[in-house]
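Weekly sync notes, structure subgroup
Attendees: PM, AL, DS (notes)

Item 1: joint prediction request from the bench team. They want all two components modeled as one assembly rather than separately. Inputs as received:
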Amino acid sequence: MLVTDDIRQILKDYSRLPVEVGGLAVDADLYRAGMTSHASVDVMLALEARFDVEFPDRMLKRSSFESIAAIEASLTELLAENV
Amino acid sequence: MADFRSGTPDQVAFLDELLDRRLLIATGVAGVYGRSEAFEAVSVSVAETITRAGSAERPEQLRFPPVLPRRDLETVGYLKSFPHLAGSIFAFDGSEQQAGEQYDRASRHEDWSEFQSMTELVLTPAACYPVYPAIAARGKLPPGGVTVDAGGGLVFRHEPSSDPARMQIFRQREIVRIGEPEAVSAWRDLWRERAVSLLSAIGLDARCDIASDPFFGRSGRMLAASQREQALKFEVVVPIAGPEPTAVASFNYHQEHFASAYGIELADGGCAHTACLGFGLERIALALFRVHGLEVASWPQSTRDELCLGA
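Output from the run, pasted for the record:
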């Protein structure tokens, strides 16, 4: 669950969420929790830097970053491609 | 230098025709034109038609110059979303000797930028931008929020092109709504319908589409996708020249973006939402000249009546 921990840390640093990231369920809707579109871009860029990946255009959309689980699914797919 | 966006053959031919007929006046820089008396009369009458269409809401009239404090551009994050379009104002900062060197180089049309320093001003990129800090400075919004008519200010986008509809400096007829989320989105929906009727009534084949802003880079692609998914931006498009219709009006729901940047609060606390609508006056005039011909006197009577352009 290292990836999940890293995602939570990035959300804490970049999502500007008005709620405690540690208390969010993995399937909680981050936009509903208060993450703006602009903040989600910062999260996306921070994830790319941390995991050394580049999200392809098909993933550059709202749903890829809507929850911790969604982010983890996108990352898992990308990291598998990179192996 | 910004990439030059070539117009299609159709667009370039239309530009040539406008210049030949002296409706537009070339300046030597692509996308920057003078306007003839006839072109100006049409643009002004379009602006007045829009004013009449919105008069029921009795918007507060505010006017701002075409320059904006640099700080405001920084506050709203424009340089993150549109770094490629911004125009910043620089001015000479140096000694008498440097002034002489600058003059010599400029006389030879060489680069004299090293003698220039950033000022506190940028060119206004959207006519609604000065409205948000002005309203925020008043304190909490009155109940029901505010509607502000920002007039038809000149705005700048650094995107030189030979498509006459893509000017670098043009007039944006902007109206802004600031208030409760429901009131703001209802206002935007009302205007979207109103804009299609208004443009249809002057003989343009207008339709409304979901749209996105030309955000910069990869993060921009994500912002654009997000904007589309949430249907935050609509454009009314009409045929001008080229294969695709051109946007002549846009309706943008910013949610809390501007209100949170400036701390605009609802009467009962809580963050306000904002939306703006902008009509591109030159683009509408261009569409009219394209569709009805280059002689206003031969335009359909119904179009001239709607625009109050005389007999």
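Discussion: The mean pLDDT of chain B is 96.
Action: AL to compare against the crosslinking data before next sync.
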